[in-house]
Amino acid sequence: MILKNSVLKLVNKQLRTCVVFNFHDIVDEDKPVRSDQLSLSSFRSQLCWIQKHFSIVRIDELIDHFQVGTVTKPTAALTFDDGYKSHFKLIKPILDEFQIKAAFYVSSAHLNNDYYWHDLVETYCQHSTASQQKMLEQEVASLTSQSSRSLIESIKYLPLTKRAIVLSTIEESTKQLITKDLLMKSSEVLELSNEGHLIGGHTLNHPILALESEQICVHEIIDDLLALEKLLNRKITTFAYPNGIPDRDFNMSHQEILASYGVKYAVNTDKSVLKKDLNPLSIPRVNLYGSNESLHCNYLLRIITNSLFN
Ligand SMILES: [Zn+2]
Fold first, then answer.
1. Could you tell me the CA-to-CA distances from 6 to 15, 56, 273, 287, 304 in Å, in that order?
2. How far apart are the CA of 243 and the centre of ligand 1, in A?
3. Mind listing the pLDDT tens digit for each residue in 114-156?
4. 256: Cβ contacts below 8 Å, ≥ 6 apart
5. Opening angle at CA 246, ends 34 and 159, nearest 5
6. 57-66 pLDDT tens trace
């Protein structure tokens, strides 16, 4: 492990590697951890590892320096998607302790809500019978031509209007069962912003933009930015594409909507370090898994190697 850390340090120093790390929900140690979540202890150990290998700055500072070629050492930025309550309750105190400023991407229509749609579906599945789940799967299947995905993935890839049809059938019976208060309040987002963290748009309702009409995309992107600007009383300059896979979840037309509004930094989920031909409206981001330093090293070295040859 010490050897791998040394190799990575050497490679980073040589290449002045720049990486944007991405996180979603973080959970307290006493709660079960889903595959899209990270325990608080794993987050803390990942942060220590990132700090061992990189100087950490805010994403706007990183991109500005990268674009003009003034990066002198390996540098990273941290981003947090979806406006989870854990970002305020658990992450902010740790960032304060490490004196780090990060970017938080928030879907403004979900601010002050208790949960995301996928929390509703997961809770329904936990509390329903096999035949009830089968009926839900059949309903989703009737609305989509994609059949090889999990239930959550299938619903994620429905246009907003069809997603709403599915959710309406389970919402009444399920919403009382959900652990409330999973998402941030407006006041908490405002506090993050006032303390120097960057708040970015993430659409109003978190659709897969590529599945929606241009009119709906303009509404989802611009009205989200306007709502955040009204709340924070400052210009929003950054945005995260929901789900974020380039050419599948979003395309050039969505980048043009952002550019026309003056957004300067938009992040995707393409797993790569920053490369010379960086498009600031499609910035790649990397996720770490668990708390094993050796695996972090392997993963990042593989990503760096791929970036060199692609
Ligand atoms: Zn998201």
1. 14, 19, 19, 21, 15
2. 6
3. 888 888 998 998 899 999 989 998 899 888 877 667 888 899 9
4. none
5. 70
6. 999 999 999 9
CA–centroid distance, residue 241 to ligand 1 (Å): 7
pLDDT at position 96 is: 97
Helix/strand/coil for 39: strand
Q: Read off the tokens for 81.
A: 């998607």
Give span(s): CATH 3.20.20.370, the chain. Answer: 2-113+183-309
pLDDT digits (tens, 9 = 90+) for 226-256: 999 999 999 999 999 999 999 999 999 999 9
User: 103 CA distance to ligand 1 centroid (A)?
Assistant: 13
At a CB cut-off of 8 Å and minimum separation 6, what does 304 contact? 11, 15, 17, 273
Dist. CA 1 → ligand 1 center (Å): 33
Q: Which of 259, 260, 240, 263 is CA-nearest to residue 250? A: 240
Buried b (16+ CB within 10 A) or exposed e, 264-279: bbbbbbeebbbeeebe
Distances in Å between the Cα of 237 and the Cα atoms of 124, 158, 173, 286 are 37, 28, 40, 21
> Selecting from 3.80.30.20, 3.40.50.300, 1.10.10.10, 3.20.20.370, what CATH number does the domain 2-113+183-309 have?
3.20.20.370
Q: 238: part of which helix (H) or strand (E)?
A: strand 238-240
In angstroms, the CA 297 to CA 302 distance is 8
> Please, how many CA atoms are within 13 Å of residue 51, restricted to the half-sphere of its CB?
13
Neighbouring residues of 280: CB distance < 8 A, sequence distance ≥ 6: 63, 67, 264, 265, 266
The pair phi, psi for residue 34, each rounded to 5°, is -80, 170
Q: Distance from the CA of 156 to the center of ligand 1, in angstroms? A: 11
